[in-house]
Structures are given as C-alpha cells and as structure tokens.
Amino acid sequence: MRILITNDDGINAPGLAICEAIAAELAGPDGEVWVVAPAFEQSGVGHCISYTHPMMVSQMGPRRFAAEGSPADCVLVGLHDVMKDTPPDLVLSGVNRGNNSAENALYSGTLGGAMEASLQGLPAVALSQYLGPATHGLDQPFEAALAYGVQAVRAVLDAGDLTGDGAYQMFYNINFPPVPAADVKGLRAASQGKRDGTRFSAEPHLSPSGRRFMWIRGGDQRAKSAPGTDAQINLDGYVSITPMRADLTDHAALSALSEALG
Fold first, then answer.
1. 91, 74 in Cβ contact below 8 A?
2. Cα 104 vs. chain centroid, distance in angstroms?
3. Global pTM?
4. Closest-CA residue to 8 (of 101, 159, 128, 90)
5. Would you give the distance in Å from CA 75 to the centre of its chain?
6. How many structural domains does the chain have?
C-alpha cells in the first residue's frame, strides 16, 4: 500500500511523526509512505487552496516534501506532482494537535486535506488527538492516537467502500480522546456534534506602538455535545469515527423548500 500523509500543524509537528508511524504499520514492509506537509503551521485554514498565487515545494528527504501552502494544497501537490506516476492508495491527514470534533471540523485544515483527497477520488482519513488535563502531563500527549491509530484506520478500511452512495465521496474524521492510552474505552461511530455556547470569537489588543490588532480566540473544548456525537464520545473516553462528505446541502430543508415553492 502507498500512503500519502499531510497535516495542518506543519512538516516539523510532533503529530506528523505519529501519523508516519501509523502509516508505516498500515503500509507494511513492502509499502511506501510519502509526506507532503505544509512548510509552516496552517491550523484553521479549512479547505483553503492557494488559487491565486504559486507555492514553493522543497524536498526534505526521501519521500518527504514541504509545501508553502495549505493541507489541501499539499494533497494536490502530492497527487499531481510528487506521486503523479504512482498515486497513493490512501491519504491520511494528521495527527492534529487538538481535537477536530464538533464545530472544529468546519475550520480544520486537517479535515481540509482529507476532504480534498476525497474530491480527488481517493480514500481519506483525518486524525486528531483531543488534548486536556489528563494528557497534559504525559511524556507522549499523542499516546492514545499512537496506540489506537492503526486499529481505527483499519476499522474504516474494513467497513467497506469509502466512496459511499452519493455524488461526493466519503472521508472519515477520527478523534482520539483526551486520556492516556490505557484509559481509552474503545472505538465508537459518531455523528458530528455541536458544543452549546462554544464558538470562536475575536479579541482586540493594542501593540506597543499603539496599533490595534485582533486575536482570534477559541471556545471551551471541555464543553459537551449531544449524547452519541463526537465531542461527547471523546470526553467519555472513546475514539470517535465520523463518516463525512463535502455535500453541504440540508436535504430535509430542501424537500420542505421544494414543497413551499410548489
């Protein structure tokens, strides 16, 4: 198996090394693991692509490249340049430092990379490590992802056709809980949740020169979502696995709108 890896934390991020270890075990001794990751951190860029300007791509080592772009850019570089003659069988994006459960999924560059791979017709999985008080003192904060990453991705691959039954191909969002590996309770399928009262905001600050700047602030990541949804599953100690696709249509509302319009 040939696996392409990207992330949104950057080429030197510790979570990327965890993803490489997961990919190496999945690929097997006869497989190949390729890395095309952002040269600099790209957290929060979502599915952004560098449509209006070019990017520099540098080879950092064997099968290892850094691109001055977003995770989605990196997937495009991997598929249409770096691996154009030997395309990957699977794309992994992560392991992200922090969760991409609930509303975070809408902002995530990690999911943006997986989404782009799915739009290109490839099986894709996004991987993220929820962090919290129980992981703060660990020598390896990503140990839940390291211990359960291979099992979680294999569960997705064993579930069957990743293309789904719609016009947009599926990809998967996997979040590892904010607990030590020994405390992980197992794997659970989950829908995307919504944390009540948790949202991003903007906070003004003055620079030493007196200029006014804005900092973006995140919401409380300890807030719970509805039972059975991803953030709640994670806080309960389970690895959440959520099938997704890039279809933003509200199909129930579409039917109601069609009736209203006659």
1. no
2. 10
3. 0.96
4. 128
5. 13
6. 1
122 CB burial (10 A radius; 0-12, 13-18, 19+):
buried
- What SS3 class is residue 68? coil
Binding residues for a divalent metal cation: 8-9, 43, 96
Give one word for 81, left, alpha or beta, with left for phi > 0 and alpha for psi -120 to 50.
Answer: alpha
Distances (CA, A) of 175 to 27, 79, 99, 202, 222: 21, 25, 6, 26, 14
Per-residue pLDDT of 116-164, as tens digits, reads: 999 999 999 999 999 999 999 999 999 999 999 999 999 999 987 666 5
**Residue 175 placed within a domain:** yes
Q: Confirm if 56 and 19 have CB atoms less than 8 A apart.
A: no
CATH code, 110:
3.40.1210.10
pLDDT score at 194: 96
Residue-wise pLDDT tens digits, 238-254: 999 999 999 999 988 99
Question: Could you tell me if residue 118 is inside a domain?
Answer: yes
Q: 74 Cβ partners below 8 Å, 6+ apart?
A: 6, 36, 37, 38, 67, 113
CA geometry: angle at 6 spanning 195 and 113, to 5°? 50
Domain hosting 231: range is 2-194+224-260
Residue set of the binding site = 8-9, 43, 96
Cα dihedral 49, 55, 60, 64 sign:
positive
CB 5 within 8 A of CB 24: no
